[in-house]
User: Fold these one by one.
Assistant:
Number 1:
Amino acid sequence: MTVPEETATAPHPVNPRPAERGALKLNYSAISDVGRVRKDNQDSGYAGPWLLTVCDGVGGAARGDVASGTAVSVIRRLDEPPSPAGGVAPGDDLLARLGGAIHRAHDRIAELVEEDRALTGTSTTATIALFDGHSLGLGHVGDSRAYLLRAGKISQLTHDHTFVQGLVDEGRITEAEARVHSHRNLILKALDGKHDPAPDLFLVEIELGDRLLLCSDGASGVLEDERLGRILGDGTPDFAAVELVRASLGAGSSDNVTCIVADVVADTDPAPDALEPLLVGAAAELPRRLGRHHHTGLFHRRDHDTGEQPVVDLPGDVEFAIPSDPIDVETARYAPRPPQRFFWLRRLLIATILAGFGWIGLAAAYHWTQQQFYVSEHDGMVTIFRGLNAEMPVVELSHPYETTDVPLDRLSEYDATLVRKGIETDTLAKAQETVDRLAAQQVPEAAQ
């Protein structure tokens, strides 16, 4: 198995298609639940024979469900049998297709925001696993996660693009502290149609018997790896997916919860042959919504419906209906917010306050200058000036304060030069002392 330690944009070394190993396929299950707190499900997920993906919408009032549903509608087009590589290494082809799909989803979100400014600030995470029967490529942006369970041991495949993950990487906080950090939901990368998503793209070597988990942070944010591994290793993919959601909500998750579980089985295994692709969460609801969505959650429905639905065969250019829901409670994801009421009044008030402080500062500076004195020349006489011995365009920094009876031409050439340049004295008393000294040093008229 190859796991990226840092952001990766090139494939990691992988053993491509070992000759001794037959083709593999996936036996999968997917479930998404709105949870106990949220009014709407902003998670979207898709599971098919060649593709698994989880997208967690960000934006609250800016409709993160639209972003996640749109991303999945674009990414799911990758779910098709692999074609001959045509001279391209199989791993390279997987990563190229993943990168292309992520950027197409990013561009589609940009188009939606351009068409409807009410969506400004919407974005989504994206964690994608693309399978070709032998190798697995992963594409990742945000804080949804992919895990691998092998021989009872769980490993996290993806690296969170979050503020707290940076603190963990720097050794400033622990993983346990990151789970309760006040800024644990601050995402540094997402598909938002505005900033370059710069996805992590890498290959993972998989083996017969491996089990994969893709999930939103509604699960990984409350369940530690050890518990995730115990639940993931129990029963069929259907059972494990349901139990992961149940455990997440029982552990106090306040977010939507989406889990996709897939077993890597032999191509000759008949069990998964009857599986249909599954579309879950906002991606399954948005195309058919004509009014407000009243999905209440896995453990609040009488029939305990898991929310799994067969994929709807939508046209490639389908537009999502965007109902006029009230403002959502999801404000913790740190997406840009729409302008607040009285925005201009607030700005005017702030500007007025800043201007007031500016005038106070200028008044204080002027008062200080009027406490400064120096000795210079005015109309041929030694004069005491009040202010600063400096010049500025338009503004006068000093003025004559007291003219003495000491003519400049009665001073020695040295003293006269000092007076013309200005003799700094700071206080009035010192200025008067300087004048007295100059008067005592006058040259007698007879000597001139």
Note: Confidence is low (pLDDT under 50) at residues 1-20, 288-340.
Number 2:
Amino acid sequence: MKKRSRRKDFEITFYEKLLQHRPNFVQALSCLGDAYTRKGFYKEGLEIDRKLVKLKPEDPVVHYNLACSLSLLGRLDEALEELKKAVLLGYDDFTYILKDPDLEPLRSYLPFKNFFQKLKRIKS
């Protein structure tokens, strides 16, 4: 099996350079965070997601993405809290929560299962 390259590629380099000139450019931050996660740079993706939450504290998708980053790093208590915030702010794609690979570690966590059961009862 071929080892995944951890080398930063053109896309990541492009967004990093762009953000040197416009550090709060939300769209570029979102793209960079996504690129970091796809390439396995989870800690870097977490840093971006934390910055986005500061810039857009009422955005449910930003909180959802932060939950994903925390989940990937095994920080399950924090991930669940961010997922709860996302839902409270309006995130409602519950079907995707159950299949998003970034949330795989969180889905096996008992407090998540309890939370999701409550969500299903409320939603029905």
Note: The chain has eight helices and no strands.
Number 3:
Amino acid sequence: MGIIVALVIGAIAGWLAGLIVRGAGFGLIGNIVVGIIGALVASWLLPQLGVSLGGSAIRDIVNATIGAIVVLVILSLVRRA
């Protein structure tokens, strides 16, 4: 069940990040991948910044979305170069 939950959270986070960062969506599979990578980035980045959002599924989605936004911004900058 854990892998399915991770995929669902990744899909939601990638979709939300795609909406926030206009023109940077990658479709369903791409959004899942970006969301999962974003969750990994956020799990490292947010504690480094001293940010703690509590513990729940909503927190996981918010963390993954923040990380996915960071990943999408970096990818859009690389794509333009």
Note: The chain has one domain: 2-80.
Number 4:
Amino acid sequence: MIVRKDPELTGGLPSEFGEHHVEYPDNQTLIEKYNTLKKEFAVLAIHPMRNEGTHLRIQVSTSWVEYKRKGLWFGISDWSDVEFQHDCDKQTYVISSVKLGGI
């Protein structure tokens, strides 16, 4: 899984969980990957959390990465809004809803 690097958002996230491996490439690494593959490829992006009263909402989007005219292009194809609510009894946040969207 490839997740676009954002030091403020992805800096503390794990690169391994269970049988899954996650890469957090920076822009230069994305350019190198595009030049190697010679075609666009998908990456996930994690967006800043929003506090909406009793809920926390995080948006995760999928973009297709392309490199042309000496610049990276990100074409968003779909996204998910993940909403969390605090469970006071368990002292943890639990997913209360997931809304899917796409172009």
Note: The first strand starts at residue 16 and ends at 17.
